[in-house]
Amino acid sequence: MNIILLGAPGAGKGTQASKIADKYKLLHISTGDIFRANIKGGTEIGKLAKSYIDAGKLVPDEVTCKIVEDRLTWDDAGNGYMLDGFPRNIYQAEQLDKFAKVDLCLNIDVDEKLLMDRICGRRVCACGESYHVSTLNGATTCAKCGGELYQRADDNPETVKSRLDTYNTQTAPLIDYYKKQGKLATVTSGEGSPDEVFAQIIKILG
Ligand code: ADP
Ligand code: ZN
User: N vs C: which end of the chain shows fewer Cβ within 10 Å?
Assistant: First the structure.
């Protein structure tokens, strides 16, 4: 099964993706993670992506689509995957339909008022886990792997505003796109705890 995770920045896509990956043995492909790895590695893609990411804008479609198309040809993508952060606009969705078969789009719906606090309070680990300062009780390391937690460079109020704007204008129209294809499933409890949200996802995925 190939799934798309849709939702605003801070909706909890990454958190749910790691739970879904564990339970359903689906490969988790995050375009944001791929870009951040490229930035860290100092690659050409990383250099190009950084300016867009820092501004809260989308990395150009040609670059992003090519990365995903390539990634889906790897052997490990043959048994089902979850796309987190792709597609992010209609053009990307149309391209995806040309090189992949999408079975389901899981849309995690969260009250927009919560997003700014969620993102600015987010602390992440290199292993992929993320936390919110309000539940860390001062801890600075990852409960899962012991790694040092840090704040993503684009998790600052100014960039977040721009990311939310990009989401509303470019990404939100995908809800209708997948609804028309009969592939949309909406997770309405997005404001709940990670476990509550995951419980609803399990009901949808069976
Ligand atoms: P979030 O969902 O919290 O905004 P991501 O890690 O998914 O975080 O994305 C971080 C940034 O990476 C985005 O703001 C954007 O600049 C870039 N990016 C990720 N996915 C895409 C995509 N499909 N197309 C264009 N840019 C992307
Ligand atoms: Zn960790």
Answer: C
pTM: 0.93
Catalytic member of 50, 152, 179, 183: 152
Tens-of-pLDDT digits for all 206 residues of the chain?
Answer: 999 999 999 999 999 998 999 999 999 999 999 999 999 999 999 999 999 999 999 999 999 999 999 999 999 999 999 999 999 999 999 999 999 999 999 999 999 999 999 999 999 999 888 999 999 999 999 999 999 999 999 999 999 999 999 999 999 999 999 999 999 999 998 889 999 999 999 999 99
Burial class (CB in 10 A: 0-12, 13-18, 19+), 205: middle
